[in-house]
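Service request form, structural biology core

Requester: graduate student, group of Dr. S.
Request type: structure prediction, single chain
Budget code: on file
Notes: please return the result as structure tokens.

Sequence provided:
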Amino acid sequence: MKDDKIIYITNEEVNRSNPNTTQDTPHEEEQKNIKQPKKKKSLYKYLTTILLATLIYVLCAWSSQVPMAEIIDVELPTIVFASLIITCLVENNYKKIAYIGYLIVTCVIYLLQPSYAFLISSALIAQVCVSLTYKIFYNVYDYNINNTEVVNKKQSRIVQYYHRMKYHIVLSIVIFVAFTLLSYYYPSVFQQLVMPALQGMNEGVNNGTVQLATIPLFTNNFTVAINMFLGGVYFSTVTLYLLIYNALVIGFTGSTLPIVYYLTFTLPHGIVELTAIILAGAAGFRLTQAIITILSGIPNDDAPFTDYVIVGGRMIADSLILLVIFTILLIIAAFIEANLTIPLGTTILGLI
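Core staff response, request fulfilled:
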């Protein structure tokens, strides 16, 4: 009797014996693993963009008393379609084409039908905000759990700080500028929202409760800025509200005054003051990121909870640096507004 033999055949031998059988190489398997998360990421971005764009438009339409039936029948499908197009372009590495093209299309549509330009701009604003938020949490230059000491010896500490904070600042700029422009070009939409604040301000100046002096102006502006910063504790809900509301007030005020008059009495102190407000918004976003980072370490077994606390603490330190910067800027802005803006504006208008 012959001994039975067990023969082991490797996958490589099977492939050689059967040329029709295909097997993914390690590189091909890696590519498949990369494509799958990318598809999921694109889907999440698309859905988030739709939700955010819809929220922006619905809240604005609600403030201007647009019928909800009209929003559902016409505006909502347009927002979904516009969000799909811009997200697809951005996710397929056509960012410049998408953003520049959408800006051009928005301007052209505004000349033809302003209401539809509002729809397109809502999708554009939402997509930019979603992309920047993603970059904030996946910034390769930022602190991370595996390596809390992110240091490049070739870069100064200021440059490293800039790389950690640039997306927070850009996000704050985009939100502020976007809603300033919306309020400027669509003042009727936001009239009921901002008029009480403007009337209260005018009454305060007339009866003397609002003083155009350095300390009162600084106190008022610092109160707004510090609330924006501390709003990061509430996951930036307060930060977003104050950032958007102040942008709406500035844009609406600009739409009600002659542009030369408005800029003359706003730019001298406004450049410094608005920079401080934008930095306050960025500080609030950073504080929110720090809190989310710390909280994410509670149920996580990948690293000790202390590592998450250390990283979150360093993010809080970054936000405190912005707190110092925007406080100094607000002091400078208050001094300029109280002592230089009116005399300088009067002189400039007298020369024109």
